[in-house]
Amino acid sequence: MTIELKEKPPLGRVIVITSGKGGVGKTTSAAAISAGLAKQGFRTVVIDFDVGLRNLDMTMGCERRVVFDFINVIQGDARLKQAMIRDKRLDNLFILPTSQTRDKNALTKEGVEKVLDDLKQEFDYIVCDSPAGIEHGAQMAMFFADEAVVVTNPEVSSVRDSDRVLGLLSSQTKRAETADAEPVKAQVLLTRHDPARVRSGEMMTVEDVLEILAVPLLGVIPESPAILRASNIGTPVVLDEPSVARRAYEDAVRRLTGTEVEMRIEGEHRPKLFQRLFGRAS
Amino acid sequence: MSLFSFARKARRPRSAQTAKDRLQILLAHERSGGGVEKTDYLPLLQRDIVAAIRKYVAITENDVEIRMERGDQMSSLEINIEMPRGAPR
Ligand SMILES: Nc1ncnc2c1ncn2[C@@H]1O[C@H](COP(=O)(O)OP(=O)(O)OP(=O)(O)O)[C@@H](O)[C@H]1O
Ligand SMILES: [Mg+2]
Q1: Above 80 in pLDDT, residue A256?
Q2: Model confidence pLDDT, tens digit, residues A171-189
Q3: CB contact, 8 Å: B65 with chain A?
Q4: Beta strand ranges found along A100-146 (DSSP E)
Q5: What is the ipTM of this complex?
Q6: CA of A266: how far to CAs of A28, A229, A278, in Å?
Q7: pLDDT at residue B1 above 70?
Q8: Where are the domains of chain B?
Q9: In this predicted model, what pLDDT tens digit does every residue of B12-61 receive, in sequence order?
Protein backbone atom coordinates (compact mmCIF):
# COMPACT_ATOMS: atom_id res chain seq x y z
CA MET A 1 0.00 0.00 0.00
CA THR A 2 1.32 3.42 -0.85
CA ILE A 3 0.74 6.38 1.34
CA GLU A 4 -0.18 9.46 -0.64
CA LEU A 5 0.52 12.91 0.63
CA LYS A 6 -2.47 15.15 0.40
CA GLU A 7 -2.61 18.88 0.68
CA LYS A 8 -6.00 18.98 2.34
CA PRO A 9 -8.12 16.42 4.14
CA PRO A 10 -11.01 15.32 1.93
CA LEU A 11 -14.35 17.08 2.39
CA GLY A 12 -16.21 13.77 2.30
CA ARG A 13 -19.58 15.24 1.31
CA VAL A 14 -22.27 12.86 0.12
CA ILE A 15 -24.71 14.30 -2.43
CA VAL A 16 -27.70 12.30 -3.66
CA ILE A 17 -29.24 13.06 -7.05
CA THR A 18 -32.85 12.01 -6.68
CA SER A 19 -36.35 12.74 -8.03
CA GLY A 20 -38.99 10.13 -7.40
CA LYS A 21 -40.20 10.27 -10.97
CA GLY A 22 -38.26 8.36 -13.61
CA GLY A 23 -36.57 9.78 -16.66
CA VAL A 24 -36.35 13.37 -15.45
CA GLY A 25 -32.57 13.64 -15.85
CA LYS A 26 -30.99 12.23 -12.68
CA THR A 27 -28.25 10.26 -14.40
CA THR A 28 -27.54 13.09 -16.83
CA SER A 29 -27.26 15.44 -13.85
CA ALA A 30 -25.17 13.05 -11.74
CA ALA A 31 -22.69 12.77 -14.62
CA ALA A 32 -22.62 16.52 -15.27
CA ILE A 33 -22.36 17.49 -11.61
CA SER A 34 -19.64 14.99 -10.76
CA ALA A 35 -17.59 15.96 -13.82
CA GLY A 36 -18.17 19.63 -12.99
CA LEU A 37 -16.92 19.13 -9.44
CA ALA A 38 -13.87 17.25 -10.68
CA LYS A 39 -13.19 19.99 -13.22
CA GLN A 40 -13.03 22.42 -10.32
CA GLY A 41 -10.34 20.24 -8.80
CA PHE A 42 -12.37 18.33 -6.25
CA ARG A 43 -11.66 14.63 -5.82
CA THR A 44 -14.98 13.20 -6.92
CA VAL A 45 -16.60 9.79 -7.23
CA VAL A 46 -20.01 9.11 -8.71
CA ILE A 47 -21.88 5.97 -7.67
CA ASP A 48 -24.66 4.25 -9.62
CA PHE A 49 -27.40 3.11 -7.21
CA ASP A 50 -29.72 1.93 -10.00
CA VAL A 51 -29.04 -1.76 -9.42
CA GLY A 52 -30.11 -3.97 -12.33
CA LEU A 53 -30.36 -1.05 -14.75
CA ARG A 54 -26.80 0.16 -14.99
CA ASN A 55 -26.72 3.33 -17.06
CA LEU A 56 -24.29 5.74 -15.49
CA ASP A 57 -21.40 3.84 -17.11
CA MET A 58 -22.79 4.65 -20.58
CA THR A 59 -23.45 8.27 -19.72
CA MET A 60 -19.88 8.59 -18.45
CA GLY A 61 -18.53 6.61 -21.41
CA CYS A 62 -16.73 3.92 -19.42
CA GLU A 63 -19.08 1.01 -20.16
CA ARG A 64 -16.36 -1.07 -21.78
CA ARG A 65 -14.18 -0.91 -18.73
CA VAL A 66 -16.52 -2.21 -16.06
CA VAL A 67 -15.06 -5.22 -14.30
CA PHE A 68 -16.32 -5.16 -10.73
CA ASP A 69 -19.19 -3.19 -9.34
CA PHE A 70 -20.69 -1.63 -6.22
CA ILE A 71 -22.48 -4.87 -5.32
CA ASN A 72 -19.28 -6.92 -5.66
CA VAL A 73 -17.72 -4.51 -3.16
CA ILE A 74 -20.65 -4.69 -0.75
CA GLN A 75 -20.60 -8.48 -0.88
CA GLY A 76 -16.85 -8.62 -0.37
CA ASP A 77 -16.06 -10.06 -3.81
CA ALA A 78 -13.93 -7.11 -4.83
CA ARG A 79 -12.06 -4.28 -3.22
CA LEU A 80 -13.39 -0.78 -3.58
CA LYS A 81 -10.23 0.36 -5.33
CA GLN A 82 -10.65 -2.35 -7.95
CA ALA A 83 -14.25 -1.52 -8.71
CA MET A 84 -13.71 2.19 -9.20
CA ILE A 85 -13.02 3.27 -12.75
CA ARG A 86 -10.86 6.31 -13.27
CA ASP A 87 -12.25 8.73 -15.82
CA LYS A 88 -10.11 8.99 -18.94
CA ARG A 89 -10.53 12.76 -19.15
CA LEU A 90 -10.14 13.87 -15.54
CA ASP A 91 -7.83 11.94 -13.26
CA ASN A 92 -9.58 13.10 -10.06
CA LEU A 93 -12.92 11.67 -11.21
CA PHE A 94 -13.98 8.09 -10.52
CA ILE A 95 -17.04 6.04 -11.36
CA LEU A 96 -18.37 3.22 -9.21
CA PRO A 97 -20.71 1.31 -11.52
CA THR A 98 -23.55 -0.84 -10.32
CA SER A 99 -24.46 -4.42 -11.09
CA GLN A 100 -26.49 -5.22 -14.16
CA THR A 101 -27.55 -8.63 -12.89
CA ARG A 102 -28.43 -8.37 -9.23
CA ASP A 103 -31.49 -6.80 -7.68
CA LYS A 104 -31.88 -3.83 -5.39
CA ASN A 105 -31.94 -5.94 -2.23
CA ALA A 106 -28.22 -6.51 -2.66
CA LEU A 107 -27.87 -2.95 -1.37
CA THR A 108 -27.71 -3.34 2.38
CA LYS A 109 -27.65 -0.34 4.65
CA GLU A 110 -24.50 -1.60 6.38
CA GLY A 111 -22.81 -2.32 3.06
CA VAL A 112 -23.62 1.09 1.62
CA GLU A 113 -22.47 2.83 4.80
CA LYS A 114 -19.15 1.00 4.80
CA VAL A 115 -18.44 1.92 1.17
CA LEU A 116 -19.41 5.57 1.74
CA ASP A 117 -17.27 5.76 4.90
CA ASP A 118 -14.28 4.43 2.98
CA LEU A 119 -14.86 6.88 0.13
CA LYS A 120 -15.13 9.79 2.55
CA GLN A 121 -11.51 9.17 3.53
CA GLU A 122 -10.40 9.82 -0.04
CA PHE A 123 -12.89 12.05 -1.79
CA ASP A 124 -14.25 15.56 -1.50
CA TYR A 125 -17.56 14.71 -3.14
CA ILE A 126 -19.41 11.42 -3.36
CA VAL A 127 -22.28 11.80 -5.82
CA CYS A 128 -25.01 9.15 -5.60
CA ASP A 129 -27.16 8.62 -8.71
CA SER A 130 -30.49 7.38 -7.34
CA PRO A 131 -32.88 5.06 -9.17
CA ALA A 132 -36.40 6.32 -9.84
CA GLY A 133 -39.12 5.59 -7.33
CA ILE A 134 -39.14 5.74 -3.56
CA GLU A 135 -38.43 2.08 -2.89
CA HIS A 136 -35.39 0.42 -1.38
CA GLY A 137 -32.86 1.51 -4.02
CA ALA A 138 -33.85 5.16 -3.81
CA GLN A 139 -33.92 4.98 -0.02
CA MET A 140 -30.42 3.54 0.08
CA ALA A 141 -29.15 6.26 -2.25
CA MET A 142 -30.48 9.04 -0.02
CA PHE A 143 -30.04 7.56 3.44
CA PHE A 144 -26.49 8.75 4.12
CA ALA A 145 -26.70 11.99 2.14
CA ASP A 146 -25.48 15.32 3.45
CA GLU A 147 -27.06 17.14 0.53
CA ALA A 148 -29.72 16.35 -2.04
CA VAL A 149 -30.25 17.58 -5.56
CA VAL A 150 -33.90 17.00 -6.38
CA VAL A 151 -34.14 16.84 -10.15
CA THR A 152 -37.51 18.17 -11.26
CA ASN A 153 -39.14 18.86 -14.61
CA PRO A 154 -41.69 21.68 -14.84
CA GLU A 155 -44.51 19.21 -15.15
CA VAL A 156 -47.18 18.12 -12.64
CA SER A 157 -46.23 14.54 -11.87
CA SER A 158 -42.55 15.39 -11.55
CA VAL A 159 -43.24 18.25 -9.12
CA ARG A 160 -45.55 16.06 -7.10
CA ASP A 161 -42.96 13.28 -6.87
CA SER A 162 -40.27 15.79 -5.92
CA ASP A 163 -42.46 16.95 -3.07
CA ARG A 164 -42.78 13.37 -1.91
CA VAL A 165 -39.02 12.88 -2.08
CA LEU A 166 -38.40 16.09 -0.13
CA GLY A 167 -40.62 14.60 2.57
CA LEU A 168 -38.53 11.43 2.64
CA LEU A 169 -35.31 13.41 2.80
CA SER A 170 -36.52 15.12 5.94
CA SER A 171 -37.74 11.93 7.61
CA GLN A 172 -36.08 8.78 6.24
CA THR A 173 -32.41 9.63 6.26
CA LYS A 174 -29.58 9.20 8.72
CA ARG A 175 -29.49 12.94 9.31
CA ALA A 176 -33.23 12.95 10.00
CA GLU A 177 -32.85 10.08 12.46
CA THR A 178 -29.88 11.57 14.28
CA ALA A 179 -30.96 13.75 17.18
CA ASP A 180 -29.03 16.97 16.71
CA ALA A 181 -27.79 16.61 13.16
CA GLU A 182 -28.39 19.29 10.56
CA PRO A 183 -31.11 18.18 8.15
CA VAL A 184 -30.16 17.08 4.63
CA LYS A 185 -29.57 20.22 2.59
CA ALA A 186 -32.04 19.84 -0.28
CA GLN A 187 -32.07 21.93 -3.45
CA VAL A 188 -34.14 21.72 -6.59
CA LEU A 189 -32.52 21.39 -9.99
CA LEU A 190 -35.11 22.25 -12.61
CA THR A 191 -34.29 20.42 -15.83
CA ARG A 192 -35.74 20.18 -19.34
CA HIS A 193 -36.93 23.74 -18.93
CA ASP A 194 -38.15 25.35 -22.14
CA PRO A 195 -38.40 29.16 -21.98
CA ALA A 196 -40.39 29.35 -25.23
CA ARG A 197 -43.06 27.09 -23.79
CA VAL A 198 -43.04 29.01 -20.53
CA ARG A 199 -43.59 32.25 -22.45
CA SER A 200 -46.52 30.77 -24.30
CA GLY A 201 -48.02 29.64 -21.00
CA GLU A 202 -47.70 25.92 -21.75
CA MET A 203 -45.12 25.26 -19.08
CA MET A 204 -45.02 26.23 -15.42
CA THR A 205 -42.51 28.92 -14.61
CA VAL A 206 -39.51 28.46 -12.35
CA GLU A 207 -41.30 30.60 -9.75
CA ASP A 208 -44.38 28.39 -9.94
CA VAL A 209 -42.35 25.30 -9.18
CA LEU A 210 -40.38 26.94 -6.36
CA GLU A 211 -43.53 28.31 -4.79
CA ILE A 212 -44.91 24.80 -4.58
CA LEU A 213 -41.78 23.00 -3.43
CA ALA A 214 -40.45 25.75 -1.16
CA VAL A 215 -36.79 24.74 -1.26
CA PRO A 216 -33.82 26.63 -2.71
CA LEU A 217 -33.09 26.47 -6.42
CA LEU A 218 -29.76 25.02 -7.49
CA GLY A 219 -30.17 25.78 -11.17
CA VAL A 220 -32.28 25.70 -14.30
CA ILE A 221 -31.17 23.40 -17.11
CA PRO A 222 -32.79 23.97 -20.50
CA GLU A 223 -34.25 21.29 -22.71
CA SER A 224 -31.28 20.87 -25.04
CA PRO A 225 -30.01 18.78 -27.94
CA ALA A 226 -26.58 19.07 -26.33
CA ILE A 227 -27.75 16.56 -23.71
CA LEU A 228 -28.62 13.90 -26.28
CA ARG A 229 -25.34 14.51 -28.07
CA ALA A 230 -23.39 14.16 -24.84
CA SER A 231 -25.12 10.91 -23.94
CA ASN A 232 -24.59 9.56 -27.47
CA ILE A 233 -20.85 9.99 -27.18
CA GLY A 234 -20.59 9.09 -23.51
CA THR A 235 -19.33 12.44 -22.28
CA PRO A 236 -20.81 14.39 -19.37
CA VAL A 237 -22.24 17.56 -20.92
CA VAL A 238 -19.84 19.81 -18.98
CA LEU A 239 -16.90 18.12 -20.70
CA ASP A 240 -18.43 18.41 -24.16
CA GLU A 241 -18.45 21.38 -26.53
CA PRO A 242 -19.96 24.66 -25.26
CA SER A 243 -23.74 24.84 -24.98
CA VAL A 244 -26.27 26.63 -22.84
CA ALA A 245 -26.99 23.36 -21.03
CA ARG A 246 -23.31 22.93 -20.26
CA ARG A 247 -23.09 26.44 -18.83
CA ALA A 248 -26.25 25.90 -16.79
CA TYR A 249 -24.74 22.78 -15.22
CA GLU A 250 -21.46 24.59 -14.59
CA ASP A 251 -23.32 27.37 -12.79
CA ALA A 252 -25.24 24.80 -10.72
CA VAL A 253 -21.98 23.13 -9.71
CA ARG A 254 -20.49 26.43 -8.63
CA ARG A 255 -23.55 27.08 -6.45
CA LEU A 256 -23.20 23.60 -5.01
CA THR A 257 -19.67 24.47 -3.87
CA GLY A 258 -20.85 27.67 -2.27
CA THR A 259 -20.19 30.31 -4.91
CA GLU A 260 -22.91 32.82 -5.56
CA VAL A 261 -23.80 32.80 -9.23
CA GLU A 262 -26.53 34.84 -10.80
CA MET A 263 -29.41 32.63 -11.98
CA ARG A 264 -29.50 32.56 -15.78
CA ILE A 265 -32.62 31.14 -17.33
CA GLU A 266 -31.92 30.55 -20.97
CA GLY A 267 -33.06 28.23 -23.69
CA GLU A 268 -30.65 26.49 -26.01
CA HIS A 269 -30.02 28.67 -29.04
CA ARG A 270 -30.88 26.91 -32.23
CA PRO A 271 -30.44 28.03 -35.79
CA LYS A 272 -33.71 29.47 -37.01
CA LEU A 273 -33.71 27.56 -40.28
CA PHE A 274 -33.10 24.27 -38.55
CA GLN A 275 -35.95 24.96 -36.21
CA ARG A 276 -38.33 25.73 -39.05
CA LEU A 277 -37.33 22.74 -41.13
CA PHE A 278 -37.48 20.10 -38.47
CA GLY A 279 -39.86 21.58 -35.95
CA ARG A 280 -39.49 21.03 -32.24
CA ALA A 281 -39.10 17.28 -32.42
CA SER A 282 -35.66 16.06 -31.39
CA MET B 1 -28.07 12.61 -55.69
CA SER B 2 -30.30 15.51 -54.94
CA LEU B 3 -28.94 18.50 -53.16
CA PHE B 4 -31.38 17.84 -50.36
CA SER B 5 -30.08 14.38 -49.55
CA PHE B 6 -26.57 15.74 -49.54
CA ALA B 7 -27.59 18.45 -47.14
CA ARG B 8 -29.34 15.95 -44.93
CA LYS B 9 -26.35 13.68 -44.83
CA ALA B 10 -24.02 16.50 -43.96
CA ARG B 11 -26.29 17.58 -41.18
CA ARG B 12 -26.70 14.17 -39.62
CA PRO B 13 -25.09 14.46 -36.23
CA ARG B 14 -22.15 12.15 -36.01
CA SER B 15 -22.93 11.52 -32.39
CA ALA B 16 -25.83 9.24 -33.39
CA GLN B 17 -23.43 6.87 -35.13
CA THR B 18 -21.18 6.88 -32.08
CA ALA B 19 -24.17 5.99 -29.93
CA LYS B 20 -25.06 3.06 -32.18
CA ASP B 21 -21.50 1.75 -32.27
CA ARG B 22 -21.15 1.92 -28.51
CA LEU B 23 -24.42 0.09 -27.98
CA GLN B 24 -23.55 -2.63 -30.46
CA ILE B 25 -20.29 -3.41 -28.74
CA LEU B 26 -21.77 -3.30 -25.27
CA LEU B 27 -24.87 -5.35 -26.05
CA ALA B 28 -22.88 -7.99 -27.90
CA HIS B 29 -20.97 -8.57 -24.67
CA GLU B 30 -24.02 -8.42 -22.44
CA ARG B 31 -26.07 -10.78 -24.59
CA SER B 32 -23.39 -13.38 -25.00
CA GLY B 33 -23.64 -14.02 -21.29
CA GLY B 34 -27.22 -15.25 -21.80
CA GLY B 35 -28.56 -12.56 -19.54
CA VAL B 36 -25.83 -13.05 -16.98
CA GLU B 37 -22.79 -10.98 -17.55
CA LYS B 38 -19.71 -12.86 -18.51
CA THR B 39 -17.63 -10.76 -16.20
CA ASP B 40 -19.27 -12.44 -13.23
CA TYR B 41 -16.43 -14.95 -13.37
CA LEU B 42 -13.88 -12.25 -12.63
CA PRO B 43 -14.08 -12.33 -8.83
CA LEU B 44 -13.53 -16.11 -9.03
CA LEU B 45 -10.67 -15.68 -11.47
CA GLN B 46 -9.08 -13.20 -9.16
CA ARG B 47 -9.36 -15.58 -6.22
CA ASP B 48 -7.78 -18.37 -8.23
CA ILE B 49 -4.92 -16.16 -9.36
CA VAL B 50 -4.20 -15.09 -5.82
CA ALA B 51 -4.30 -18.69 -4.62
CA ALA B 52 -1.93 -19.83 -7.38
CA ILE B 53 0.61 -17.12 -6.74
CA ARG B 54 0.43 -17.57 -3.00
CA LYS B 55 1.90 -21.02 -3.41
CA TYR B 56 5.16 -19.26 -4.23
CA VAL B 57 4.98 -15.71 -2.95
CA ALA B 58 3.22 -14.11 -0.02
CA ILE B 59 0.70 -11.75 -1.59
CA THR B 60 -2.76 -10.63 -0.54
CA GLU B 61 -5.97 -10.01 -2.45
CA ASN B 62 -5.02 -6.35 -2.42
CA ASP B 63 -1.95 -6.94 -4.52
CA VAL B 64 -3.92 -8.12 -7.53
CA GLU B 65 -5.62 -5.68 -9.84
CA ILE B 66 -7.79 -6.67 -12.78
CA ARG B 67 -8.72 -4.22 -15.52
CA MET B 68 -10.71 -4.88 -18.63
CA GLU B 69 -11.40 -3.06 -21.86
CA ARG B 70 -14.05 -4.48 -24.15
CA GLY B 71 -13.69 -4.06 -27.89
CA ASP B 72 -15.74 -5.13 -30.88
CA GLN B 73 -13.17 -7.64 -32.13
CA MET B 74 -11.67 -8.64 -28.82
CA SER B 75 -11.41 -7.61 -25.22
CA SER B 76 -8.28 -7.23 -23.21
CA LEU B 77 -7.84 -8.31 -19.64
CA GLU B 78 -5.04 -6.67 -17.74
CA ILE B 79 -3.87 -8.31 -14.55
CA ASN B 80 -1.37 -6.46 -12.40
CA ILE B 81 0.21 -8.22 -9.51
CA GLU B 82 2.17 -6.19 -7.06
CA MET B 83 4.99 -8.30 -5.70
CA PRO B 84 6.07 -7.62 -2.16
CA ARG B 85 9.59 -6.29 -1.71
CA GLY B 86 12.15 -9.05 -1.41
CA ALA B 87 9.89 -11.63 -3.00
CA PRO B 88 11.78 -14.51 -4.55
CA ARG B 89 12.07 -14.18 -8.30
N1 LIG C 1 -32.01 19.01 -20.31
C2 LIG C 1 -32.33 18.00 -21.14
N3 LIG C 1 -32.61 18.24 -22.44
C4 LIG C 1 -32.90 17.23 -23.28
N5 LIG C 1 -32.94 15.95 -22.93
C6 LIG C 1 -32.68 15.63 -21.65
C7 LIG C 1 -32.36 16.63 -20.68
N8 LIG C 1 -32.13 16.01 -19.50
C9 LIG C 1 -32.30 14.70 -19.71
N10 LIG C 1 -32.63 14.45 -21.00
C11 LIG C 1 -32.90 13.14 -21.60
O12 LIG C 1 -33.91 12.49 -20.86
C13 LIG C 1 -33.68 11.10 -20.82
C14 LIG C 1 -33.67 10.62 -19.37
O15 LIG C 1 -32.54 11.20 -18.72
P16 LIG C 1 -31.80 10.44 -17.55
O17 LIG C 1 -31.45 9.05 -17.92
O18 LIG C 1 -30.71 11.33 -17.07
O19 LIG C 1 -32.98 10.40 -16.48
P20 LIG C 1 -33.06 9.60 -15.12
O21 LIG C 1 -33.84 10.46 -14.20
O22 LIG C 1 -31.72 9.17 -14.68
O23 LIG C 1 -33.90 8.34 -15.54
P24 LIG C 1 -34.20 7.03 -14.62
O25 LIG C 1 -35.27 7.44 -13.66
O26 LIG C 1 -34.64 6.01 -15.58
O27 LIG C 1 -32.91 6.69 -13.93
C28 LIG C 1 -32.38 10.85 -21.53
O29 LIG C 1 -32.67 10.45 -22.84
C30 LIG C 1 -31.70 12.20 -21.52
O31 LIG C 1 -30.85 12.35 -22.63
MG1 LIG D 1 -30.98 7.24 -14.12
Answers
A1: yes
A2: 999 999 999 999 999 999 9
A3: yes
A4: 125-129
A5: 0.81
A6: 18, 19, 21
A7: no
A8: 22-31+40-82
A9: 568 999 999 999 888 887 777 644 455 567 778 888 888 898 999 888 87
Pocket test for ligand 1, best of A227, A240, A251 (most atoms within 8 A of CB): A227
Distances, alpha carbon A3 to alpha carbons A6, A139, A266, in Å = 9, 35, 46
Q: Tell me the whole-structure pTM to 2 decimals.
A: 0.87
* CB-CB contact of A154 with A208 (8 Å): yes
A282 close to ligand 1 (CB < 6 Angstrom) = no
Judging by DSSP bridges, how do beta strands A185-193 and A85-86 pair with one another? unpaired
Rounded CA-CA distance A98/B30 in Å is 14
Tell whether A133 is in a known binding site.
no
Q: Please provide the average confidence, as pLDDT, over all residues in chain B.
A: 76
Domains with residue ranges and CATH for chain A: 13-257 (3.40.50.300)
CB of A24 closer than 6 A to ligand 1? yes
Q: Provide the phi-psi class of B15: left if phi over 0, else alpha when psi is between -120 and 50, else beta.
A: alpha
- Gap between the terminal Cα atoms of chain B: 68
A67 touches chain B (CB under 8 A): yes
Using most ligand atoms within 8 A of CB, pick from A28, A49, A193, A266 the residue to mutate for ligand 1.
A28
**Strand blocks (E) in chain B:** 64-69, 76-81
CATH number of B22-31+40-82: 3.30.1070.10
List, for residues A47-84, the tens digit of each pLDDT value. 999 999 999 999 999 999 998 999 999 998 888 998 99
Is the distance from CB of A24 to CB of A134 less than 8 angstroms?
Answer: no
Q: What is the mean pLDDT of chain A?
A: 93
- Amino acid at residue number A122: E
